[in-house]
Design goal:
This protein is α+β, with helices and mostly antiparallel strands. It has helices spanning 4-20, 68-81, 86-101, 124-141; strands spanning 33-39, 44-53, 56-65, 146-149. It has a four-stranded mixed sheet with strand order 3-2-1-4, with helices on one face.
Length: 153
C-alpha cells in the first residue's frame, strides 16, 4: 500500500511526465470549436481545439505554453474527455474544480488519473494553473468563442 509520501511522489511523476511530453499537443484545423485561455497571474496561455459531433467530444487538442501544472492539466484533460458526451465532460469539469479547490475527496473514481492534482488545493495560487484548460473546455462546450481568463472564473 502507498503512504502519503509515495502518493505525492507518484503524483509529481505523472504531472512532470505530462508537462514534458504533453498528449494531444498541437494545432487542429478541423476542430469545430476553438477557444483561447489565459492565466494572467502566471502567464499561461493556451488554445483548445475541440471536435464535437452529435453531442460527443470526438477529438481534443491544445497548444500553448505555461507552467508544468497547466500543461499537465491540459494533457490529462484532453486524454480524458475524448469520446465523452459533452454533458459528461461538463460534469467532469465541476468534479475536477471541486477536487482542486478542496471541496471533493480525491478518491472520486470518476476523476481517475486527474486525482494527481489533489495537492494543488494546498497552493491556492496554483489552482488557476490547474483549471485554465478546464475553464477553456467549459467555454468551448458551451459554444463560446474568443478568449477566457482565469481571472473571470
Amino acid at each position: 500500500m502507498f503512504d502519503d509520501d509515495d502518493l505525492r511522489d507518484l503524483y509529481q511523476e505523472v504531472i512532470l511526465d505530462h508537462s514534458r511530453h504533453p498528449r494531444n499537443f498541437g494545432h487542429e484545423d478541423h476542430a469545430n470549436r476553438r477557444v483561447r485561455g489565459s492565466n494572467p497571474l502566471c502567464g499561461d496561455r493556451m488554445t483548445l481545439y475541440l471536435t464535437v459531433e452529435d453531442g460527443v467530444v470526438k477529438d481534443a487538442k491544445f497548444e500553448g505554453n505555461g507552467c508544468a501544472i497547466s500543461m499537465a492539466s491540459a494533457s490529462l484533460m484532453t486524454e480524458r474527455v475524448k469520446g465523452m458526451k459533452a454533458d459528461d465532460a461538463k460534469a467532469l469539469f465541476r468534479r475536477f474544480h471541486e477536487l482542486v479547490t478542496g471541496e471533493e475527496a480525491p478518491s472520486d473514481p470518476a476523476l481517475d488519473k486527474l486525482a494527481v492534482f489533489s495537492g494543488v488545493r494546498e497552493f491556492p495560487v496554483r489552482v488557476k494553473c490547474a483549471t485554465l484548460a478546464w475553464h477553456t473546455l467549459a467555454a468551448a462546450l458551451e459554444g463560446r468563442e474568443g478568449e477566457v481568463s482565469t481571472e473571470e472564473a
